[in-house]
Amino acid sequence: MTQPEPVTQPEPVTRPEPVTGPPRVRRAVRALLLDGDALVLLRRTRPGRPVYWTTPGGKIEPTDASPEAALRRELDEELGATAGPVRQVFACAEQSPEVHRLNTFYVCRLTSMDLSRRHGPEFADPANGRYDPDLVPCTAAALASIDLIPEMLGAYLRDHAGDLPGLVR
Known about the structure:
- This protein is an alpha+beta fold and 169 residues long.
- Helices cover 17% and strands 40% of the residues.
- It has helices at 67-79, 140-144, 151-160, and strands at residues 24-35, 38-46, 49-54, 57-59, 81-95, 99-113, 130-137.
- Strands 1, 2, 3, 4, 5, 6 and 7 form a seven-stranded mixed β-sheet that branches.
């Protein structure tokens, strides 16, 4: 007669502490800034993270008169740039337990850029890494070859990159 196997207790399950309160909502505006038929993107190099690209833009501040005003302020801060008329073309949300990011993307054309005028708060701390402007052809193939953040924007641009230059003058 065989002995029954001893009963083992399962390992206790460790769960993360629940987030208290609702997540913060961060509304942001981002520019699909065209220079000819190329997009002006920011090549981000941050310690401990692979290189990626993102669009210029950022948080809508309470003092901004409108989302468009926020976009123009961000272009000035991050690139020393001005743009012509803007047109909203895409929006997406990124969610985590701590924050919900609501990004609205506007296509516009670069009218001037002076990188010596860059002055945004992101440049104050070297630990934030580098924000290097980079011209990337506004084609599905060129945009698919880079790590563009947020991922949903990359998917949108793979389908619509060729349409953007015709949307603004």
